Amino acid sequence: MTSLGTFALLFAPSGQGAGGGITVFLFQIAALIAIFYFMLIRPQRRQQERHRQLLASLQRGDRVVTSGGIIGDVVHLKDDEVTIRSAESRLVVQRSNIANIVNRSVEPKPQ
C-alpha cells in the first residue's frame, strides 16, 4: 500500500465516528454566534441605550456637540428637532444627531 493509501485510511470516517463531525461543526457554529453576540451585538446595544438616555435627558441650556462636530447651546427642543445656538447663528438639527452633552447649565430634573 502506498503512503497516500495509508493516509486516507487514517483519516477516513469510521462507522461510529461519522456523527461526531456534525456535533463538532454545530459546536463551532454555536461558539461563533456566541463570540459575535458578546463582542459585537451586546456592546452596540448598550451604546444605543446610553445614547437614547442622553437624548431623553437633553434640556435647554445644555452645551452639546453634534455628530458633525458643531458645538452649541440648546435653545429650543421639539420631539425630534433641537435648535442650537452656535456663535451667532441658530441651527435646527435632528435630535438623533446630538452626539454628546459637553456640560450642563443646571442639573437635570428628576423624572
Task: Write up what this structure looks like.
The protein is of the alpha+beta class and 111 residues long. It has a domain at 57-103: SH3 type barrels. It has two helices and five strands; from the N terminus they run H-H-E-E-E-E-E. The chain has helices at 3-11, 18-56; strands at residues 63-66, 71-77, 81-86, 89-94, 98-103. It has a five-stranded antiparallel β-sheet with strand order 4-3-2-1-5, covered by helices on one side. Strand 1 and strand 2 (71-77) form a beta hairpin. It is rod-shaped, with a radius of gyration of 28 Å.
Report mean pLDDT, rounded to a whole number. 85
Q: Main β-sheet, in a few words?
A: 5 strands, antiparallel
How large, in whole angstroms, is the Cα Rg? 28 Å
Question: How many H/I helices?
Answer: 2
Q: What is the strand tally?
A: 5
* Contiguous uncertain segments of 5+ residues: none
**What is the CATH fold-level name of the domain at 57-103?**
SH3 type barrels
Cα-to-Cα separation, first versus last residue: 82 Å
Helix content: 40-55%
Order of helices and strands: HHEEEEE
Structural category? alpha+beta
> β content, as a range?
25-35%
Keywords:
111 residues; alpha+beta; SH3 type barrels; 5-stranded antiparallel β-sheet
Short description:
The chain is an alpha+beta fold and about 110 residues long.
Set out the fold topology.
Blueprint: H1 3-11, H2 18-56, E1 63-66, E2 71-77, E3 81-86, E4 89-94, E5 98-103
Antiparallel strand pairs: 1-2, 1-5, 2-3, 3-4
